[in-house]
Amino acid sequence: MKNFSLLMILLSFLACENEVKKAENNKEYKTEISQKTFTEKLSYDEQIEELKANKPKNSILSNDIQFINDSILTGKFKLDISRYEIENKKKECFPMIIEKEEFYEYSLESKRTTKKEFKLLGDINADGKDDFVFILPSLGLCEEGQSYYFTDNKIPRIQTESNCCHIESVFSIGDIDEDGGIEIAEYYSSCASSFKSINIWTLKNSKWKLVSDFTFKINNEYKAFDDFNKLHKKISKGKFKFLEIYDINGKGELLKEWKTVTMK
User: Fold this and answer.
1) What is the pLDDT of residue 115?
2) Which end of the chain is more exposed for a tag (fewer CB within 10 A), N or C?
């Protein structure tokens, strides 16, 4: 009888302990739900403010335009990213938190080097003014890679899915369609592969249109940057040819072909 009483006391204690654990778990669950509900009730702008308030001291948000203009572009050009921010807001594409030192690699004239980070291209949009290109990292988490920006806010950026962009990778190929603005070529690199591509762009109605793209296999005969002018030639109005280098055979010979493109 004594053993039976002890057993009942033990079972009662275990049942009570289980109830306490359930209550604690339920409390934690309710707290989690409450926090989640609170977060979900915050607007996009309110959540951005939360990110600003809670970011580490020496960090910035990737879309901090004041920092970009003051510390990266250093007053040489005033970038307007409002059109991209509108799109990112629609997609709830939140900015990244980046250490300031990481961002300085995109500066126009870094303290660590005297290399200029603007590249002159010519008159892209036929407004009679020269345009320059520069690079910035992704503005938000949904953007895959770096983007090329231009020193005229009317010219849209060119987004990439690569983090191996360089200003040397954008070239002028002249005014192929003779509309007053130049066409440009973008040497596209995925960082690792020896197979690259060269994209030809034209600006139409304030939007970039891809004219054509070509494979460029890294080789010893043509250097993409130094020998770029050897790879293309204008034939007539709206028509040009481009040397595509698509592979190297077992003898070390380039597999290449001149391809003709007519712009529409």
Assistant:
1) 53
2) N
Sequence-distant (6+) residues with CB within 8 A of 127 are 152, 154
Do residues 194 and 219 lie in contact, with contact meaning Cβ atoms separated by under 8 Å?
no
Query: Would you say 222 and 228 are in contact if contact means Cβ atoms under 8 Å apart?
Result: no
Q: Give the C-alpha separation, 158 to 210, whole Å.
A: 11
Predicted TM-score (pTM) of the model is 0.81
Q: What percent of the chain has pLDDT over 70?
A: 81
* pLDDT at res. 74: 86
The total of other beta-carbon atoms located within 10 Å of residue 67's CB is 16
CA gap 52, 59 in Å, rounded: 9
What is each CA distance from 157 to 83, 150, 206, 221, in whole angstroms? 10, 7, 10, 32
Low-confidence ranges of the chain (pLDDT < 50): 1-16, 18-38, 114
Compute CA distances 88 → 16, 46, 94, 139, whole Å: 52, 15, 7, 9
Residue 64 CA: distances (Å) to CA of 43, 54, 60, 173, 230: 19, 15, 7, 33, 40
Per-domain residue ranges for the chain? 1-41, 107-262
AA letter at 45: D
How many CB atoms are closer than 10 A to CB 56? 9
